[in-house]
Amino acid sequence: MLKIKNLSYGKDKKILKNINLEIPKNEIFAIIGPNGAGKSTLSSIIMGLIKDNVDGEIIFENKLINNLEIFERARLGMTMAPQSVAEFEGITVSEYLDLSKKYAINNWFSDKEEVLKLVGLNPKKYLNRFVDNTLSGGERKRIELASILFFGPKFVILDEIDSGIDFTSIEDIGKILHILKDKDATILMITHNEKLLDFATKAALLCNGEIIKTGSPKEIKDFFEKCKVCELEDKIKEVNNRE
Amino acid sequence: MSNIFNNLFSLGLPKDILNSPSLIVEGNKVIKEIPYPGILIEKHEKLQGLFINITVLENIKPKKPIHLCLSKIGAGSQEIFVDILVGKNSKVKFISHCAFKGKNIKHITKTNFKVKQNAYLDIEEIHYHDKDLDILIDTQSKGVVEDYGTYKSLFKIDKNNAGKVNVTYEVDVLNYASIDIETKMAGRDGDDIFVKDIIYLKGKHSKAISKSRIVALGKMRAEFYGETYGIGDYARGHIDCSEIIRCKDVVLKATPVVVVNNPTAKVTHEAAIGSLDKKQIQTLMLKGYDEDEAVEIIVRGLLK
Q1: How would DSSP label each residue in chain A?
Q2: Angstrom distance (rounded) from CA B293 to CA B26
Q3: Which end of chain A is more exposed for a tag (fewer CB within 10 A), N or C?
Q4: C-alpha angle with apex B293: B287 to B297, nearest 5 degrees?
């Protein structure tokens, strides 16, 4: 479904280096890595939020999409729940969910109340609230997930889905992932939380802008432990080189 | 007559004004009135303009809004002088539909209001401007909100050119009374907008919010000036002005002034002028909207 070939990003200093990935249809593909590894940069590049200083190829359903705008990629069926979600003055939750309908790819749901319940929000309390700074970051993120369920994408990037979210258990996130998978969507999950790898079908480890390893979630989880000391090792190398 | 109504409805006015309690004025003439029990309306057409006295008797609480429609089709001036008295324990909402079509129009309104004890007055002034309208708007509201009273006001122009606009509010807020003044405008090429809110929080525990949203969609000038005085014990006030720029050669200015001379009073302010948040635009583009569509959605929300 999505292929990334020899992707690099950066002008002088390369933030991403020669990334190669292939995400088959209906996979829950996790990219894990420490803070600053380049995970969110990679998701921004895939969705077209960053286009300058990008080398390599991004291919979605056999189509090269490097030159497409964000909305053009969305109309092909790609979308993203960003790590940090925007607030909108004067737009209610109900209206915000309706906004996902105009260019929806699949009509998975028609009942807003049902979708809000799926993401753990009481529709009676939330449908008429504004999507502005009166909502907590966690509430806002749940509403973004609800809006993605309404959009019905073929491919969705969930960037740090659990950050700022007050899910009572990790299983709540698993529930959303499984709904998406059951609806035949392909999911790219960007995270630094190893626990989320339990829901993935395949995973890759991104460290210092490079894909270090791709494999089963279990393999990657074990390997990630080692990568946590990447930075420390780099510093040791630096000192050794100086000497 | 039907020609005037056809013009008004073509500008977007809701048709139910013909069936609801209302006062419809074209130029300086009253052309239709549907009364509501307990709300007395006196009209005097004079040389200087139309004088309207509205008295809401005590304990009157209409469930639906009362419509005031002020229109001017063609060139010329409309000058309206309004006195509103809302009696004790009454609760009333007026929606003032202001519809204009033509060139060289002047719309001047001077409103004096008094909200008596424990009463509630809500006035929405929504403008309907024709595409090629050339207008000067000068609207001034001055009033007192007595103890435990509430005053809410919204002034809105969001479609087509706003024109040369001067909007002024000056309100005294007495004990435990509260007011909420909101101005929302979109300006386009050639528009010149000035909004001034002056609020005196004279009473103890009096409260006020003065909020302004101006979006510059073309080459224009706009200024918001808000002054709130914290005078009464435990008075609380807030000025919130935000102006958005969408193109070059725009002059936007926002000046919130807070004056507090009582140690228990508190007045805060926030002012921002800038472009739209890129994150908002991108979030909507991720749902398939192109940039222009995304901007329109965001601006519509801001001005709602």
Answers
A1: -EEEEEEEE-SSS-SEEEEEEEE-TT-EEEEE--TTSSHHHHHHHHHTS--TTEEEEEEETTEE-TT--HHHHHHHTEEEE-SS----TT-BHHHHHHHTTTT-S------HHHHHHHTT--HHHHTTSBSSTTS-HHHHHHHHHHHHHHH--SEEEEETTTTT---SSHHHHHHHHHHHHHTT-EEEEEES-GGGGGG-SEEEEEETTEEEEEE-HHHHHHHHHHHTTHHHHHHHHHHHHH-
A2: 36
A3: C
A4: 85
Q: Does B60 touch chain A (CB under 8 A)?
A: no
Which chain B residues are within 8 Å of A80, Cβ to Cβ? Answer: 286
Cα atoms in the 13 Å half-sphere on the side-chain side of A146? 30
Provide the ipTM. 0.91
Q: Which residues from A are below 8 Å from B when comparing CB atoms?
A: 47, 49, 69-71, 74-75, 79-80, 82, 84-91, 99-100, 102-103, 144, 147, 151
Percent helix / strand / coil, chain B, rounded to 5: 10, 60, 30
- Sequential DSSP letters for B182-228: EEEEEE-TT-EEEEEEEEEE-STT-EEEEEEEEEE-SS-EEEEEEEE
For residue B186, count CB atoms less than 10 angstroms from its CB and return exposed for 0-12, middle for 13-18, buried for 19 or more. Answer: buried
| Residues A3, A202: Cα–Cα separation, whole Å | 15
Touching check for B274 and chain A: CB below 8 Å?
Answer: no
Instruction: Show residues of chain A in contact with B280, CB under 8 Å.
Output: 86-88
Task: Name which of B213, B290, B298 is nearest A88 (Cβ-Cβ).
Answer: B298
pLDDT-derived band of residue A195, with 50, 70 and 90 as boundaries?
confident
Strands A63-64, A54-60: parallel, antiparallel or unpaired by DSSP?
Answer: antiparallel
Question: What's the alpha-carbon Rg for chain A, to the nearest Å?
Answer: 18
Per domain, the residue ranges of chain A are 2-242
Could you write out the DSSP letters of every residue in B216-238? E-SS-EEEEEEEEEE-STT-EEE
Distance from CA of A157 to the nearest CA of B (A): 11
d(C-alpha B124, C-alpha B116), whole Å: 19
Query: pLDDT tens, B82-136?
Result: 999 999 999 999 999 999 999 999 999 999 999 999 999 999 999 999 998 999 9
pLDDT in tens, B231-279: 999 999 999 998 988 888 899 999 999 999 999 999 999 888 888 889 9
Which amino acid does the sequence have at B254? A
Question: Are B287 and A86 in contact (CB < 8 Å)?
Answer: no
Residue A32 φ/ψ, nearest 5 degrees? -115, 150
Q: Note every long-range contact of A207-210, with CB atoms under 8 Å and residues 24 or more positions apart, other chains counting.
A: A207/A33, A207/A34, A207/A37, A208/A37, A208/A38, A208/A234, A209/A9, A209/A10, A209/A14, A209/A15, A209/A16, A209/A17, A209/A37, A209/A38, A210/A16, A210/A17, A210/A18, A210/A19
